[in-house]
Design brief:
Blueprint (H helix, E strand, L loop, with lengths): L1 E2 L4 E6 L8 E4 L6 E7 L4 E5 L6 E2 L4 E10 L5 E8 L4 E6 L2 E4 L4 E9 L14 E11 L2 E13 L10 E8 L7 H5 L2 E9 L5 E7 L4 E2 L11 E8 L4 E8 L4 E7 L7 H10 L1
Parallel strand pairs: 4-13, 6-13
Antiparallel strand pairs: 1-2, 2-4, 3-4, 5-7, 7-11, 8-10, 8-12, 9-11, 12-13, 14-15, 15-18, 16-19, 17-18, 19-20
């Protein structure tokens, strides 16, 4: 697929998968283009932590992608994968219901090109694009994730990603059901892993959104944000690199404005 400047995702695939989708047939081509909308952030796609993005030339690699439905209702999804030089051998499952608040893990088997150049400078050899599409009455909705695939040995990396964040909003006077539901807070985060590369950034509860382009495996700095009403005062921010090293912090918006002494007193009293 490609992502146009207008935010429209164009998925190229053989016809007759999603009948409700709008189709534009290429002249002189047996392929069909389906124009789809970007799915809401309540449906997310991530590279599974069991995936290794470091491969060898000629290897058959298995990549795992998690599609999470953060809604309370079910969606039916079709799964696709685009590559640059590798060959997609299998996608399992190719389509599946994703239950409300559920996650489906999709396995993609790739035959890595034998002509791949061994990378020692930290440059990715190939970009993999995984797309999940669900039909809707207004066109198809898609969610996607991109990943850099490196050919060569995985670097030694025992350090967690570098994370910094700032808090926005003020919940000090939003301590009743009526006031907390109408008052919001959030965090702005910057994340980077310069060694093995950044695999994922998530929050619990879900809701983290990248504010800059993110490709799993990147060594560049990326930004993102999380927001919630003051009724939801707790969030865990988790960043994971390609070697499985993790940065995790728990944020309680009710404690943000407390002094270090006040927080220590609360901890000792517990």
């Amino acid at each position: 697929y490609t992502l146009s400047t207008s935010g429209v995702v164009i998925v190229e695939e053989a016809a007759d998968k999603v009948n409700v989708s709008r189709r534009l047939t290429d002249s002189g081509s047996s392929k069909t283009q389906r124009i789809v909308n970007q799915a809401p952030s309540s449906v997310t796609a991530n590279v599974n932590s069991q995936t290794s993005l470091y491969v060898q030339p000629g290897q058959v690699a298995s990549l795992y992608f998690d599609i999470t439905n953060n809604n309370n209702w079910n969606f039916y999804y079709y799964f696709y994968c685009n590559t640059q030089t590798s060959t997609v051998q299998a996608i399992q499952p190719k389509e599946r219901w994703i239950l409300g608040l559920g996650t489906v893990t999709v396995t993609v088997k790739l035959a890595v090109a034998n002509s791949g150049t061994i990378i020692s400078s930290g440059t990715a050899a190939e970009t993999i694009s995984f797309v999940a599409v669900t039909p809707s009455t207004s066109g198809d909705d898609a969610t996607y994730v991109k990943a850099f695939m490196y050919v060569g040995q995985q670097p030694n990396d025992s350090g967690s990603p570098d994370v910094s964040y700032t808090i926005t909003g003020d919940c000090r006077n939003a301590n009743t059901p009526s006031t907390c539901s109408s008052t919001n807070w959030g965090l702005q985060a910057t994340i980077r892993d310069q060694q093995s590369g950044l695999l994922s950034v998530t929050t619990v509860p879900p809701g983290f959104i990248f504010t800059s382009d993110f490709t799993a495996g990147t060594r560049d700095q990326v930004g993102g944000r999380y927001s919630a009403s003051c009724c939801l005062n707790l969030v865990d921010l988790i960043a994971t690199d390609l070697n499985g090293n993790q940065y995790k912090t728990s944020i309680d918006i009710n404690n943000v404005w407390l002094s270090a002494g006040a927080i220590a007193a609360i901890v000792l009293a517990c």
